[in-house]
Design a protein that fits this description.
Layout (H helix, E strand, L loop, with lengths): L1 E8 L5 E8 L2 H10 L3 E7 L1 H14 L6 H16 L4 H11 L3 H15 L4 H6 L7 H13 L2 H56 L7 H15 L1 H20 L1 H11 L6 H21 L4 H9 L5 H15 L4 H8 L4 H13 L2 H59 L1
Antiparallel strand pairs: 1-2, 1-3
Helix pairs in contact: 3-4, 3-8, 4-5, 7-8, 8-9, 8-12, 8-17, 9-17, 12-13, 12-17, 13-14, 14-15, 15-16, 16-17
């Protein structure tokens, strides 16, 4: 992507100037005309473009986000529901889009549709923005002639996913900040405060307590080998990323997260809620049940649940009932199993799955609201323990010295 300086006249004849990132000058001109600006001059800005490109990569800008996909789904679904042809709808969205990346994507979709491709086929060419679940749902909507309904359900699914992510991030934000603050405080005491007392203790001809000797040794190691500590922490972080990037490591880590105290229940409820909501929407849209399991397994964002869902799919292909495979998966509670049994008996499995997802979402919201109250006393106890250890280790020799002075 290059950077261009452009000048043009708007509908009132006023001169408009600016800088924009675009693949070609033709794309800039097309964007300007779509925005109601008559191009006057377009020139490349190579130096500034290179600087902005570096800043853009550092700040993560220029990438399409899940929020962009959510807005895209809502806008295109609204236009399709209003009866507008796809080409006209995409053209209108491209002209009104303030995101150049999204406008470029919309232009590519229009080009593919103009060449005779279906919308799902055009979306499949951009897997970085449209995943398999999204493309498959669009393909089902095209085949059944219910594309507007599919867009509406996809929007509900994406909004549900966004709420889940926000709730989980909100639940983990407070304890993360507190742990970071504790780590910084301990590092400051170890590197700057304890060495000052170490100089005082060096002139004392008394045997220091064991706790004080341990603190002084740790502080001395941190001061002299801080670069080794940072290198070790960096290597551990990098190794953890590599391990999680492997299928076996990701499966074990995702399984371990579900067993963590306090937050494990949040991850568990979020995963089941994603599964039930996505499965309900896929079945309502007419996706075959075995294919629905395959698609939903990629949505839950947990390797442990993904493997269990694939096991449920294998059970369905063997002819087992929904209740049997749900029991064998060992991820549902008795109440959810009872609801699945009722849904299977009444033929309303989609509604029951949706109700299970809503129930778990409500429970997740409650778990998030009480997480802070549950973690706060634990963090206070940890902070109190650290303060006690540090204070005893630092001031206990001074106390002993005072006692000796009084006896003398």
């Amino acid at each position: 992507m290059q950077h261009f300086l452009y000048e043009g006249r708007n509908r009132r004849g006023e001169l408009v100037k600016g800088r924009i990132e675009s693949p070609t000058t033709q794309a800039v001109a097309q964007w300007m005309m779509g925005s109601g600006i008559v191009p006057v001059k377009i020139s490349a800005d190579a130096v500034k473009g290179e600087q902005d490109s570096v800043l853009s990569r550092l700040k993560g800008r220029g990438k399409l986000t899940p929020t962009d996909l959510l807005l895209f789904t809502r806008q295109l679904g609204t236009m399709v529901r209003a009866g507008l042809p796809l080409m006209q709808a995409l053209s209108g969205m491209q002209k009104s889009s303030g995101n150049l990346k999204l406008a470029t994507l919309l232009g590519k979709l229009r080009e593919d549709l103009d060449q005779g491709l279906e919308l799902s086929q055009a979306m499949a060419r951009h897997p970085e923005f449209f995943d398999d679940y999204y493309v498959s749902m669009i393909r089902v909507g095209e085949g059944a002639g219910r594309l507007d309904e599919v867009f509406s359900r996809l929007f509900a699914q994406l909004e549900f996913e966004r709420d889940m992510r926000q709730k989980i991030k909100g639940a983990l934000r407070y304890p993360t900040f507190v742990v970071i603050a504790i780590a910084i405080a301990v590092a400051i005491l170890t590197i700057f405060v304890i060495p000052v007392f170490a100089k005082v203790y060096a002139g004392m001809k008394v045997e220091l307590p064991l706790l004080t000797r341990i603190l002084l040794a740790v502080s001395d190691f941190a001061v002299n080998w801080w670069w080794a500590v940072l290198a070790f922490l960096g290597a551990c972080f990098y190794g953890f990323r590599l391990w999680v990037g492997q299928p076996a490591g990701r499966y074990r880590w995702d399984k371990f997260k579900l067993r963590l105290p306090l937050v494990g229940g949040i991850f568990n409820k979020a995963g089941i809620a994603r599964f039930c909501q996505s499965f309900s929407i896929a079945c309502k849209s007419g996706v075959p049940i075995d294919q629905a399991f395959t698609l939903v397994a990629k949505v839950v964002d947990n390797a442990f649940f993904e493997r269990r869902i694939h096991g449920m799919r294998e059970g369905i292909t063997r002819g087992e009932t929904m209740l049997q495979i749900a029991q064998a998966s060992c991820i549902f509670q008795p109440m959810e199993l009872q609801m699945i049994s009722v849904g299977e008996a009444t033929g309303e499995m989609e509604k029951m799955m949706e109700q299970v997802a809503q129930m778990y979402q409500e429970e997740l919201q409650y778990e998030v609201s009480r997480l802070g109250d549950a973690i706060e006393p634990i963090l206070l106890a940890v902070m109190g323990g650290l303060v006690l250890v540090l204070m005893l280790g630092i001031f206990l020799p001074l106390w002993d010295l005072g006692q000796l002075a009084q006896q003398g």
